[in-house]
C-alpha cells in the first residue's frame, strides 16, 4: 500500500479497510523515524512488561509475548482467572496517547502495550470486545519497531483483509469491527526486529 492509497479523495479522508460491518483506518506513519525510534526505546526500557497469563481449560498458559497495562484509574480487570491492576500513566506514555488522540480525534483512557521480542511471537485470532470496554469504542494501535503483518477475518464470511504495520504507524479500529471481525498478528519465521504495539482503548470505568 502506498501513502496516497490510504486516502479516498483529495479531502484526505482515510479509506475504510473493511468492506463491510466495521471500520478500520490505517493512518500510516504518524511520527518520523527518529521519533518512533525514541518512542520504542522508551517503551522497552520504561514500561512494566510482564508475560500474560491465563487459565485455558484449567491449564495455566504463560504467553511468550509480554504486556503492560495503563489507565486513568487503578482499575482491575479479571479474565481467565487472573486479576490485573492498571498502572498510572508515565508522562512519556501520556504524551504518546495525546499524539495518537490528536491524529484520530478519539479520546482514550487506557492502554494495553504488547511486546513481541521476535517474529516467533504473535497474537492469534481474537476480537477486543470485553465487557470492560465501551461498546463499539475505538482502539488505536501505535506500532513501534519491526514491521509486522496484521490481518482481519470476517466472523461469518471468512473474508480477509491484511496490511503491514510500519514503525511509527497508527491503525484505528472502531464501530462494529470487534463484533463482526477477528484480527491477528501472525507469527513469522522471517527475522524481525522486536516490536511494541501500544493499543489505546476506551474502558468503561
Ligand atoms: O500488536 C498488535 O498490533 C495487535 C494487538 C492486539 O490485537 C491487541 O492488543 O488486542
Ligand atoms: Fe486485539
UniProtKB/TrEMBL annotation:
<dbReference type="InterPro" id="IPR027450">
    <property type="entry name" value="AlkB-like"/>
</dbReference>
<dbReference type="GO" id="GO:0008168">
    <property type="term" value="F:methyltransferase activity"/>
</dbReference>
<dbReference type="InterPro" id="IPR005123">
    <property type="entry name" value="Oxoglu/Fe-dep_dioxygenase_dom"/>
</dbReference>
<dbReference type="GO" id="GO:0032259">
    <property type="term" value="P:methylation"/>
</dbReference>
<dbReference type="InterPro" id="IPR037151">
    <property type="entry name" value="AlkB-like_sf"/>
</dbReference>
<dbReference type="InterPro" id="IPR032854">
    <property type="entry name" value="ALKBH3"/>
</dbReference>
<keyword id="KW-0808">Transferase</keyword>
<feature type="domain" description="Fe2OG dioxygenase">
    <location>
        <begin position="107"/>
        <end position="204"/>
    </location>
</feature>
<dbReference type="Pfam" id="PF13532">
    <property type="entry name" value="2OG-FeII_Oxy_2"/>
</dbReference>
<keyword id="KW-0489">Methyltransferase</keyword>
<protein>
    <submittedName>
        <fullName>DNA methylase</fullName>
    </submittedName>
</protein>
Amino acid at each position: 500500500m502506498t501513502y496516497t492509497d490510504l486516502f479516498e479523495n483529495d479531502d484526505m479522508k482515510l479509506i475504510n479497510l473493511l468492506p463491510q460491518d466495521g471500520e478500520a483506518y490505517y493512518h500510516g506513519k504518524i511520527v518520523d523515524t527518529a521519533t518512533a525510534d525514541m518512542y520504542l526505546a522508551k517503551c522497552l526500557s520504561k514500561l512494566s512488561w510482564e508475560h500474560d497469563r491465563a487459565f485455558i481449560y484449567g491449564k495455566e498458559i504463560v504467553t511468550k509475548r509480554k504486556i503492560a497495562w495503563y489507565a486513568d484509574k487503578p482499575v482491575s480487570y479479571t479474565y481467565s482467572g487472573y486479576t490485573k491492576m492498571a498502572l498510572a500513566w508515565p508522562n512519556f506514555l501520556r504524551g504518546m496517547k495525546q499524539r495518537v488522540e490528536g491524529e484520530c480525534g478519539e479520546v482514550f483512557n487506557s492502554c494495553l502495550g504488547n511486546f513481541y521480542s521476535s517474529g516467533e511471537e504473535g497474537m492469534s485470532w481474537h476480537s477486543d470486545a470485553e465487557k470492560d470496554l465501551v461498546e463499539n469504542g475505538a482502539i488505536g494501535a501505535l506500532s513501534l519497531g519491526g514491521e509486522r503483518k496484521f490481518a482481519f477475518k470476517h466472523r461469518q464470511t471468512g473474508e480477509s483483509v491484511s496490511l503491514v504495520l510500519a514503525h511509527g504507524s497508527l491503525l484505528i479500529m472502531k464501530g462494529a469491527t470487534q463484533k463482526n471481525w477477528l484480527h491477528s498478528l501472525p507469527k513469522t519465521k522471517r527475522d524481525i526486529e522486536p516490536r511494541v504495539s501500544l493499543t489505546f482503548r476506551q474502558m468503561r470505568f
